[in-house]
UniProtKB/TrEMBL annotation:
Subcellular location: Cell projection, Growth cone; Cytoplasm, Perinuclear region
Location of the region described as Disordered in the Swiss-Prot/TrEMBL record: 118-159, 286-325
Domain (PH): residue spans on this chain: 183-283
Biased composition regions of type Acidic residues, renumbered to the chain: 313-325
Protein name: Exocyst complex component 8
Gene behind this protein: EXOC8
The family this protein is said to belong to: Belongs to the EXO84 family.
Superkingdom, natural source: Eukaryota
InterPro entries: Cullin_repeat-like_dom_sf (IPR016159), Exo84 (IPR033961), Exo84_C (IPR032403), Exo84_C_1 (IPR042561), Exo84_C_2 (IPR042560), PH-like_dom_sf (IPR011993), PH_domain (IPR001849)
Keywords: Exocytosis, Protein transport, Transport
Function text: Component of the exocyst complex involved in the docking of exocytic vesicles with fusion sites on the plasma membrane.
PANTHER family: EXOCYST COMPLEX COMPONENT 8 (PTHR21426)
Predominant place of localization: other
Origin species: Felis catus
Length: 726
C-alpha cells in the first residue's frame, strides 16, 4: 500500500512539473511554506532527484532508439532514391523510343528513312550528351557503363590517362596511381564548412574514383593546382543530404567514422549530381565485390582430362600417369551475415555497441579458424581489420583521461573487457592505469586545503587509499587470468601513485613547518590507511617509508635543534634554585606530567608547601626530552634508527655537560649539594626511563644510551676552567 501511495505521489509530482503553467520560483515558495521542516524538504528533494534520473534514463533510451531508427530510415531512403533515379532513367529511355517509332513507319524511300534514322540518332545522342555536358560543368567523367552508351566513351587507357592528367595537378597523391583498375568518375569544386558552427573553412576540390573519394585543397598562389587533403574508401563512407536552411543551402554531409565533414555545392543541380553519382558508385563497387566473392566461392568442376582416343598424336609408349592438380579448398562467404558483416560492424561502432561488435568478430574468427585463406578471405579480413582498428580507436578514446573520470574504476570495465577480447591486453592495462592515475590526480587536486592540517590529511588519505583500493579490486576483476606482466605493471603504477600522494602529503605537513607532534599524527594516519591495502595482498608500507624518510629526517633534525637551543638558553640563566609551584594544584599537575613521561618515583623529589627539590632547568629538560622521544617513536621505522638515536644522544649531552660543568665550578657547598641531587635525578631516573622507552618503541636496546647512563661523568673538563664546553 505504501508503494502504491509513493507511485501515485510520483505520478502527481510528474504531472505538476510537466504542466504548462509551472513556475519554479512559485513552486519552491509554496513548498517551503507547506513543509514542516528540513526532513520534508530533504524527502521532496530526493523524490525530485529520482524523477530527474528516471527522466534522464528514458531520454537516453529514446535517443538510442531514435538513432537506430534514423540509421535504418537513412538506409531505406538511400535505397528508394537509387530506385527512383533508375525508374526516371528508364522512363526517359521509353519516351525516346516511343517518339522514334512513327519515323520508322513512314512510307518513305530508303534514303529518307536513313536520313530520318540519322536525325533520330543525333537527337538521342544530343540528349545523352546534354546530360554529360551539364555534369561536365561540375567535372563529370563517364562511368564504364554509361560512357559507352553512345559509343564515344574512352576505354581503360583513356580513363587512366584522364585520372593521371587530373591528379598531376594535385600535390602529394602519386601513390593513388599505383592502384590497378582505378579511374575517375566525377570531380568538382566544393566549399567546406565547420560542422558545429557552420563557419566556412576552405575551398576544396573533390575527385570521386570508382573505389574512393579524394579531397584536395586549393593553392591560391598557384592557379589550377591543389594539395592533397584526405582520401576516404567508399565502403566506409556514408552520404547524408543536409536540408536547406537559408543562407545555408546546397549542402551534403560525408560521414567517415569517427569524423564527419560538410560540403556546399555551387547550386542545387550540382548537389543532386554529387549525391546521385556517389550512391551509384558505391552501389557499383558493392555489386562488383559481391560478384567477386560469389565467383570465388562458387564450386568448380573437376579438371577435364583428355582421353587417349581423342589425341591421335600421343605415343602409347611415352604414356605417363598424369598427376591430378590439387584444387584449392574454397571457403563459403555467401552467407548473409558474412556479406553484411562490415556494415554491421559500422553500425555497432556508431551505436557504441562494443559487445555486439566483438561478438561478430569472434563469430567470424571461429568460422574461419581452420579454413584456408584464398584471396576473397584475405579481402574480407582486410575490411574487418579496418573495422577492428576503428573499434580499437574508439575504445582507446573511451579510456583516455580526456573523457569524464566520474563513475570510478567500474566505469572503465566495459572498454577494458572488450580490448582484452580483441587481444589488446597490454594496451588495455596501460590505458586503464593511465585513466586511474588521472582520476587520482584530479581527486587530490580537488581537495580543499582548509582548517587544521590533520583534518586535511584525513581527507587526503581517505580519498587516495580508497581510490587505490577500488582500482586494485577492479584490476583484479578485469585482468584475472591474463598475462602476469599486467600485475607487474600495476605494482609499478601503484608506486608512482604513492609518489603523487607523498608529494601532496609532504607539501602540507613538512613544507609548512608543522610541529613534530602534528607531523607524527599525520604519518600515523597515513600508515594506518596504507596497512588496509594488506587485505587484498598489496603491501606498500615500505614504499611510503622510502618516500618519507628524507622529510622525517629533516623534521627530526629541526626539532632536535630547537630543543638544544632552548636547553642552552635555560642553562645560561640557571641559578640552581628549588622550584616553588605556589599551589597544590600546580604541584599535582606537575606530578601527572612526570608520571606520563614515565618518571614513577617523582614523589621523593617533592618537599613541603609545594616545593620541588629539583631545578626548573632539569624538570623542563626532562619533559621536553620525553615529549620528543614519544613523537619520534610514532615516526619510527628501521631506516630512521640511527638518526633518532644520535639526536637523543646530542640532546642528553647538552644537559649532562652543563650539570658536570656547574658541579666543578660551583664553590658554595649548599648549591653544590643541590647540583649533585639534580645530577643524580638525570643519571638514575631520567636516563633509565629514556633507555627503557626507546627499547620498547624500537624493539631492541641501544648501546649508546647504556654507555651514557653507566658513565659517572660524560665529559672530562679542566677543574680550573671557568668556561663551559657546551
Amino acid at each position: 500500500m505504501a508503494m502504491a501511495m509513493s507511485d501515485s505521489g510520483a505520478s502527481r509530482l510528474r504531472r505538476q512539473l510537466e504542466s504548462g503553467g509551472f513556475e519554479a520560483r512559485l513552486y519552491v515558495k509554496q513548498l517551503s511554506q507547506q513543509s514542516d521542516g528540513d526532513r520534508d524538504l530533504q524527502e521532496h528533494r530526493q523524490r525530485i532527484q529520482a524523477l530527474a534520473e528516471e527522466t534522464a534514463q528514458n531520454l537516453k533510451r529514446n535517443v538510442y532508439q531514435n538513432y537506430r531508427q534514423f540509421i535504418e530510415t537513412a538506409r531505406e531512403i538511400s535505397y528508394l532514391e537509387s530506385e527512383m533515379y533508375q525508374l526516371s532513367h528508364l522512363l526517359t529511355e521509353q519516351k525516346s523510343s516511343l517518339e522514334s517509332i512513327p519515323l520508322t513507319l513512314l512510307p518513305a524511300a530508303a534514303a529518307a528513312a536513313g536520313a530520318a534514322a540519322a536525325s533520330g540518332g543525333e537527337e538521342g545522342g544530343g540528349g545523352a550528351g546534354g546530360r554529360d555536358h551539364l555534369r561536365g560543368q561540375a567535372g563529370f567523367f563517364p562511368t564504364p557503363g554509361g560512357a559507352s552508351r553512345d559509343g564515344a566513351g574512352p576505354g581503360e587507357e583513356g580513363k587512366q590517362r584522364t585520372l593521371t592528367t587530373l591528379l598531376e595537378k594535385v600535390e602529394g597523391c602519386r601513390h593513388l596511381l599505383e592502384t590497378p583498375g582505378q579511374y575517375l568518375v566525377y570531380n568538382g569544386d566544393l566549399v567546406e564548412y565547420e560542422a558545429d558552427h557552420m563557419a566556412q573553412l576552405q575551398r576544396v576540390h573533390g575527385f570521386l574514383m570508382n573505389d574512393c573519394l579524394l579531397v584536395a585543397t586549393w593553392l591560391p598562389q598557384r592557379r589550377g593546382m591543389y594539395r592533397y587533403n584526405a582520401l576516404y574508401p567508399l565502403d566506409g563512407l556514408a552520404v547524408v543530404n543536409v536540408k536547406d536552411n537559408p543562407p545555408m543551402k546546397d549542402m551534403f554531409k560525408l560521414l567517415m567514422f569517427p569524423e564527419s565533414r560538410i560540403f556546399q555545392a555551387e547550386n542545387a543541380k550540382i548537389k543532386r549530381e554529387w549525391l546521385e553519382v556517389l550512391e551509384e558508385t558505391k552501389r557499383a563497387l558493392s555489386e562488383k565485390r559481391r560478384r567477386e566473392q560469389e565467383e570465388a566461392a562458387a564450386p568448380r568442376g573437376p579438371p577435364q582430362v583428355p582421353s587417349k582416343a581423342s589425341n591421335p598424336f600421343e605415343d602409347e609408349e611415352d604414356d605417363e600417369p598424369t598427376v591430378p592438380e590439387v584444387e584449392e579448398e574454397k571457403v563459403d562467404l555467401s552467407m548473409e551475415w558474412i556479406q553484411e558483416l562490415p556494415e554491421d560492424l559500422d553500425v555497432c561502432i556508431a551505436q557504441r555497441d562494443f559487445e555486439g561488435a566483438v561478438d561478430l568478430l569472434d563469430k567470424l574468427n571461429h568460422y574461419l579458424e581452420d579454413k584456408p585463406s584464398p584471396p576473397p578471405v584475405k579481402e574480407l579480413r582486410a575490411k574487418v581489420d579496418e573495422r577492428v582498428r576503428q573499434l580499437t580507436e574508439v575504445l582507446v578514446f573511451e579510456l583516455s583521461p580526456d573523457r569524464s573520470l566520474r563513475g570510478g574504476p567500474k566505469a572503465t570495465r566495459r572498454a577494458v573487457s572488450q580490448l582484452i577480447r580483441l587481444g589488446q591486453c597490454t594496451k588495455a592495462c596501460e590505458l586503464f592505469l593511465r585513466n586511474r592515475a588521472a582520476a587520482v590526480h584530479t581527486a587530490i587536486r580537488q581537495l580543499r586545503i582548509e582548517g587544521a592540517t590533520l583534518l586535511y590529511i584525513h581527507k587526503l588519505c581517505h580519498v587516495f587509499f580508497t581510490s587505490l583500493l577500488e582500482t586494485a579490486r577492479e584490476f583484479e576483476t578485469d585482468f584475472a587470468g591474463t598475462d602476469s606482466g599486467c600485475y607487474s605493471a600495476f605494482v609499478v603504477w601503484a608506486r608512482s601513485a604513492m609518489g603523487m600522494f607523498v608529494d601532496a602529503f609532504s607539501k602540507q605537513v613538512f613544507d609548512s613547518k608543522e610541529s613534530l607532534s602534528t607531523a607524527a599524527e599525520c604519518v600515523k594516519v597515513a600508515k594506518e590507511h596504507c596497512q588496509q591495502l594488506g587485505d587484498i595482498g598489496l603491501d606498500l608500507t615500505f614504499i611510503i617509508h622510502a618516500l618519507l624518510v628524507k622529510d622525517i629526517q629533516g623534521a627530526l633534525h629541526s626539532y632536535k635543534e630547537i630543543i638544544i637551543e632552548a636547553t642552552k638558553h635555560r642553562n645560561s640563566e640557571e641559578m640552581w634554585r628549588r622550584m616553588n609551584l605556589m599551589t597544590p594544584e600546580a604541584l599535582g599537575k606537575l606530578k601527572e606530567e612526570m608520571k606520563s613521561c614515565g618518571v614513577r618515583n617523582f614523589e621523593q623529589y617533592t618537599g613541603d608547601d609545594c616545593w620541588v627539590n629539583l631545578s626548573y632547568t632539569v624538570v623542563a629538560f626532562t619533559k621536553q626530552t620525553m615529549g620528543f622521544l614519544e613523537e619520534a617513536l610514532k615516526l619510527y621505522f628501521p631506516e630512521l634508527h640511527m638518526v633518532l638515536l644520535e639526536s637523543l644522544v646530542e640532546i642528553i649531552l647538552v644537559a649532562v655537560q652543563h650539570v658536570d660543568y656547574s658541579l666543578r665550578c660551583e664553590q658554595d657547598p649548599e648549591k653544590k649539594a643541590f647540583i649533585r641531587q639534580n645530577a643524580s635525578f638525570l643519571y638514575e631516573t631520567v636516563l633509565p626511563v629514556v633507555e627503557k622507552r626507546f627499547e620498547e618503541g624500537v624493539g631492541k636496546p641501544a648501546k649508546q644510551l647504556q654507555d651514557l647512563r653507566n658513565a659517572s661523568r660524560l665529559i672530562r673538563v679542566n677543574p680550573e676552567s671557568t668556561t663551559s664546553v657546551v
